[in-house]
Description:
By secondary structure, the protein is of the alpha+beta class. The chain is built from 14 helices and 25 strands. An eleven-stranded mixed sheet has the order 3-7-8-14-11-10-9-22-25-21-20, sandwiched between helices. The longest helix has 26 residues, at 379-404.
Amino acid sequence: xxxxxxxxxxxxxxxxxxxxxxxxxxxxxxxxxxxxxxxxxxxxxxxxxxxxxxxxxxxxxxxxxxxxxxxxxxxxxxxxxxxxxxxxxxxxxxxxxxxxxxxxxxxxxxxxxxxxxxxxxxxxxxxxxxxxxxxxxxxxxxxxxxxxxxxxxxxxxxxxxxxxxxxxxxxxxxxxxxxxxxxxxxxxxxxxxxxxxxxxxxxxxxxxxxxxxxxxxxxxxxxxxxxxxxxxxxxxxxxxxxxxxxxxxxxxxxxxxxxxxxxxxxxxxxxxxxxxxxxxxxxxxxxxxxxxxxxxxxxxxxxxxxxxxxxxxxxxxxxxxxxxxxxxxxxxxxxxxxxxxxxxxxxxxxxxxxxxxxxxxxxxxxxxxxxxxxxxxxxxxxxxxxxxxxxxxxxxxxxxxxxxxxxxxxxxxxxxxxxxxxxxxxxxxxxxxxxxxxxxxxxxxxxxxxxxxxxxxxxxxxxxxxxxxxxxxxxxxxx
Length: 479
């Protein structure tokens, strides 16, 4: 157990911060609530960005960039939107030594400014669908912040699309929700549930909001992405109209969807242990580190060239930029091991004098610490197999943990006991009332995370009122 990391069982919140510090992922910035993403943390974001960007482009989306400053009047055009975001807005009132004629809002999200531009770009049904994404930063003045999970400024992508019909907008909303699901499960090895938000929890100004939710190791829920069907609300506010196939002017139907650097926090809390960061191989910026081990100059002259061969073979198979050679002479092998363990590198490759004699290297998995020798001639294939096995094992372990801590609850007394005790996900019946939803939150701190899209409807009785309920919804205490 690492001395610089608080055990999860002792203090989970401090463990989380310790893992970030030990992995050199991020630091607090001088402005309260903001963070500096260090190279190790930003490298993870770059991996996320590159993989998701490709998935977006495979579904026909293109990238653009919109300004960080938005006229305050834009925010106020959509009533629900301004009501939902007002407490979090950062507003610029002076610039260039003068008071501005109209205050400018620092971008909390871009539906308004993009709606303004779409109104200029869309004239005919031939201009649709309009499928645009942007990678940027946003600012929301959060009162309680935590690195990666909730910060005043954060990085994200936000997709914004416009369509002829409501059916096309709904299909787009669900398509991008599935992109998020596939990315998080297949690349981050993070099992997620997908579903629709309640009216109380949906995005301000949206017709419907869908989300992906994951369970962290403390059994709390983390919302890791949202996809919104905005209907025609923003189209009407910004007069985004097109001439349809019968020469009739109509408002478009729009969507927006996004994920952020919050996923790095979710990734950390899903897989890491009391020794530090654990990264699934498919998202790891460094997949393998080769560590030569020797006690004398004579051994070094034999081990180091062999270790360089090992690095070259692994680099050819995995990507030269994702395989490191750590031959720092001023650190003991154990200290080098410790450094890369806390960086979350999936595979450590040890090369000592006996390995050189045998023409092999020793592969060590970060998650289980299991060791496996691999002959030099079969090194690339063996390493790839080990990494794929680790990827699958991390997903299976996280899913088993979630499933073991998901409970079907019928009694409100049992529900309150679960939330006050061991916690976890609760599938329970609810009568659809915002008042009951609010009462449950006030009495237990649990919220409806989503109305599941998967599985069959199961009619029952609301656990609070006994009134009819068409299906179970997912409750949890969340970040």
